[in-house]
């Protein structure tokens, strides 16, 4: 393990250390899955001792919660851009929503982990900062859904919550361990357990959007 990282002595150096830690966590999380990455793994990837890393982040959960917030910003910007080119039809909007999430597998993983784990081992200020980011991005997406389909604020929030929570859950179902994956492939009776995230999410969102009445 490299020991090239020294304690940051300036704000710029601290930002550089934090960026390196976040980049390492991103690479490890994308390759292994969020649940499999420990604080020690991240520290080793950036050439730091775990105790030194804790000068920059409270816990591993805070690191991944910060990445979840970044994921919301990235997803929201891309989704809103795509919705601006989308026809005002429920099926088309559902396809754009589902496709934008499927293109971001690590974000889907983070969406599942955030309420289960990541918000539970951090300071209340970290949770507040994360929730304020999501609030801002939900508002941006909500405005596009209202423009396209005339949805109320409540309806739009329900659609966004359904899309993100289902994307997280379906991604977990679609990525079991290698032994379980082999079991599904070998036993035809278990074929129903093989989940294709995009098509299923699109069907659910299409049904939800089709059933919603536009605002008066």
| Euclidean distance between termini CA atoms | 62 Å
What is the typical, i.e. mean, pLDDT?
A: 91
Radius of gyration: 20 Å
Backbone shape = globular
Strand tally, please? 0
Largest sheet, described in full? none
Structural class: mainly alpha
Series of secondary-structure elements, N-terminal to C-terminal: HHHHHHHHHH
Low-confidence stretches: none
Beta-strand residue percentage: under 5%
SS summary, helix count: 10
Helical residue percent? over 70%
Explain what you see.
This protein is 72% helix and 0% strand. It has helices spanning 11-32, 39-45, 50-53, 60-83, 90-102, 105-118, 124-149, 153-174, 178-186, 197-211. Helix 4 crosses helix 6, helix 7 packs across helix 8 and helix 8 packs antiparallel against helix 10. The longest helix has 26 residues, at 124-149. The radius of gyration is 20 Å and the shape is globular.
Features:
216 residues, mainly alpha, 10 helices
Task: Briefly say what this structure is.
The chain is an all-alpha fold and 216 residues long. The protein has helices at residues 11-32, 39-45, 50-53, 60-83, 90-102, 105-118, 124-149, 153-174, 178-186, 197-211. The mean pLDDT is 91.
Question: Helices and strands in order, then pairings?
Answer:
Elements: H1 11-32, H2 39-45, H3 50-53, H4 60-83, H5 90-102, H6 105-118, H7 124-149, H8 153-174, H9 178-186, H10 197-211
Helix pairs in contact: 1-2, 1-4, 4-5, 4-6, 4-7, 5-8, 5-10, 6-8, 7-8, 8-10
